[in-house]
């Protein structure tokens, strides 16, 4: 695989010559996936470039990302072009995470992969993947510079969302001077930092907080492996009337445990348990996730298990013990 910088040059060339750009991010998109994709969507529009943005079904957006501008103008996956001339994927470490949009990705003339996951398989025809970038949003900013496309406020708001979520509010180890420099550039677009922060991190429905409390009382700490684990079952969601996409931040409560090295949360979903891993001591949870069919970063990763949430936790326990 070529270096990301050279690949970004090729990506800019492909996009500069394309009449239409089809954008897609991974299933159950997070702040970086949605933010980096919608940022390029806004930049294309500002250039008068035809563009569409999509992600796999279910097309739910977690409530804390619904303030992002442009989400009302996205395209359902069923109406995504089947053979796009230029398709770009964002924050998507493997082609499988595109769900049914995989078909379009495999038929695209140019498939540009913008990402920062070290575990990315490089499934594109152009792979701009920098594992040292704090967020895919950083890659989009670099791409815009190569295209000579100026930022605008909507794009800045979307990029900031990707940056602030993937750095854990500028607290994780990936918070480099480059991150602060980009944050400064973006904040200069008069972004409403306080309300963005509340939307993203500080606001949850009463029902979710009550459900989280109930789930936290069942949290388990395994002194031997240093694993703290918690589950959200189908019954928890039903009893409190909470939707899966509301529960994305639950891992951030569990990983606070001082005695733990690794935190795992397994959440019920119709297609299997959705498992999130966080490392607090340098344990490479990305490698654990890969061994269980998923991917991610060394400090934050995940996988899906076609079975119960309890089984999923046991798989992680066994992987860490072995
Ligand atoms: Mn990301």
| Annotation, overall tally of beta strands | 11
Number of helices: 12
Shape: globular
pLDDT < 50 runs, ≥5 residues: none
Report what the structure shows.
By secondary structure, the protein is α/β, with parallel strands linked by helices. It has two domains: 4-200, inorganic pyrophosphatase (n-terminal core), CATH 3.90.1640.10; 206-321, Diaminopimelate Epimerase, Chain A, domain 1 (Roll), CATH 3.10.310.30. 39% of the residues lie in helices and 17% in strands. The chain has helices at residues 4-16, 31-46, 102-107, 136-147, 153-166, 177-187, 193-202, 206-217, 234-240, 250-254, 285-291, 309-321; strands at 20-25, 50-54, 86-90, 110-115, 126-129, 220-222, 227-232, 262-267, 273-279, 295-296, 300-305. The strands form two sheets. The protein has a six-stranded mixed β-sheet with strand order 6-7-8-9-11-10, with helices on both faces. Strand 8 (262-267) and strand 9 (273-279) form a beta hairpin. The chain binds manganese (II) ion. Residues 32, 91, 116, 135-136, 166 line the site of manganese (II) ion (MN).
In short:
The protein is of the alpha/beta class and 322 residues long.
List the helices and strands and how they pair.
Blueprint: H1 4-16, E1 20-25, H2 31-46, E2 50-54, E3 86-90, H3 102-107, E4 110-115, E5 126-129, H4 136-147, H5 153-166, H6 177-187, H7 193-202, H8 206-217, E6 220-222, E7 227-232, H9 234-240, H10 250-254, E8 262-267, E9 273-279, H11 285-291, E10 295-296, E11 300-305, H12 309-321
Parallel strand pairs: 1-2, 1-3, 3-4, 4-5, 7-8
Antiparallel strand pairs: 6-7, 8-9, 9-11, 10-11
């Amino acid at each position: 695989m070529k270096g990301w910088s050279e690949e970004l040059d090729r990506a800019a060339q492909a996009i500069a010559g394309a009449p239409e750009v089809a954008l897609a991010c991974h299933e159950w998109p997070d702040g970086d996936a949605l933010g980096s994709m919608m940022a390029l969507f806004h930049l294309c529009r500002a250039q008068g470039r035809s563009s569409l943005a999509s992600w796999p079904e279910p097309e739910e957006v977690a409530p804390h990302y619904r303030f992002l501008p442009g989400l009302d103008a996205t395209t359902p996956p069923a109406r995504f072009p089947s053979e796009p001339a230029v398709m770009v994927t964002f924050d998507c470490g493997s082609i499988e995470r595109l769900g049914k949009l995989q078909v379009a990705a495999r038929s695209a003339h140019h498939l540009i992969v913008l990402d920062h996951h070290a575990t990315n398989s490089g499934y594109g025809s152009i792979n701009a993947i920098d594992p040292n970038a704090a967020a895919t949003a950083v890659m989009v900013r670099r791409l815009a510079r190569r295209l000579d496309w100026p930022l605008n406020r909507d794009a800045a708001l979307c990029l900031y969302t990707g940056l602030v979520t993937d750095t854990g509010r500028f607290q994780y180890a990936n918070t480099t001077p480059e991150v602060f420099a980009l944050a400064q550039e973006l904040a200069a677009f008069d972004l409403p930092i306080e309300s963005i922060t509340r939307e993203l991190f500080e606001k949850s429905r009463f029902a979710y907080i009550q459900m989280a409390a109930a789930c936290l009382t069942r949290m388990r700490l395994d002194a031997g492996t240093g694993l703290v684990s918690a589950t959200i079952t189908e019954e928890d969601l039903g009893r409190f009337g909470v939707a899966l996409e509301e529960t994305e931040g639950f891992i951030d409560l569990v990983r606070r445990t001082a005695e733990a090295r690794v935190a795992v949360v397994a959440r019920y979903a119709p297609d299997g348990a959705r498992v999130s891993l966080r490392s607090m001591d340098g344990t490479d949870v990305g490698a654990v996730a890969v061994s269980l069919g998923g991917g991610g970063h060394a400090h934050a990763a995940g996988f899906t298990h076609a079975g119960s949430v309890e089984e999923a936790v046991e798989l992680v326990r066994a992987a860490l013990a072995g």
